[in-house]
Amino acid sequence: MTIAEGAKFAAALRALVCAACLASAAAASAEPAAGGFDETLTLAGQQLHLNGAGLRSVFIVKWYVAALYVPERSHDPERLLAQNGPRRLAMRMLADKSAARLTRAFRDGLRNNHDDAELHSMQPQIDALFATFEDIGTARQGDLLTFDLVDGTIRIAVNGTPRGRPIDGERFYAALLRVFVGERPADPELKRGLLGVDAAAGRDAGAAGS
Asked: CATH number of the domain at 34-209, please?
């Protein structure tokens, strides 16, 4: 093979790899992001509504599908963070993730959305969260992790089984939500999904076309 032929072959191979990546990404975006989550649920005697759902992926690797349940739907992150009463953040795992990976992801998200003073004031809750991840161990593909706010405490469960101890503080629950819908979210597309922005756009487009 000549140098020119080799260069052409390398270029063609790169094109095929890029095409495969784009096709995979397109397929991922075409999948329903709701992940089979119900439109409503009852938590601590109060009905909650699905605010939105979205896919968390890194490059073409799918990590989980998340859903946010709140008393009142809103596309405004600050309004969601300011709501009172029960709430639920649910994560359906699409790949195995160790306690260390979960801890690193949440630690980075908390650091990205809070200053040092805020993090210091929440350190007991952060330690309790990471201890719960250690108790869970590896979150397996297909597992459902739920982060519920009930009576001012955060309760974490895997497939309906409580794990760790309840964590004090509605303020810390808002901090956890900022990892997903804050100014510097872990995944901007996931943020849009949890805010229900894409779903609302789809409904508006459907109404315009009818």
From this structure: 3.50.70.10
Residues 6 or more apart from 152 whose CB is under 8 A from it?
168, 169, 170
Domain boundaries defined on the chain:
1-30, 34-209
DSSP conformational letter for 140: P
Q: What is the pTM of this model?
A: 0.79
pLDDT value of position 50: 98
Task: Find tokens 């108790």 and name the residue.
Answer: 135
pLDDT in tens, 122-161: 999 999 999 999 999 999 999 999 999 999 999 999 999 9
What Rg value do the Cα atoms of the chain yield, rounded? 20
Strands 87-93 and 153-158: unpaired
Residue 194, token pair as written in the block: 């949890």
Average pLDDT of the residues in 37-63: 94
Give the count of beta carbons closer than 10 Å to the beta carbon of residue 105. Answer: 17
Q: Could you tell me which of 156, 183, 181, 203 has the C-alpha nearest to residue 54? A: 181
Whether residue 189 contacts residue 58, with contact meaning beta carbons closer than 8 Å, is answered with no
Strand bridging mode 153-158 / 144-150: antiparallel
Q: Nearest Cα to 90, choosing from 143, 142, 49, 146? A: 146
Neighbours of 81 (CB within 10 A): 17
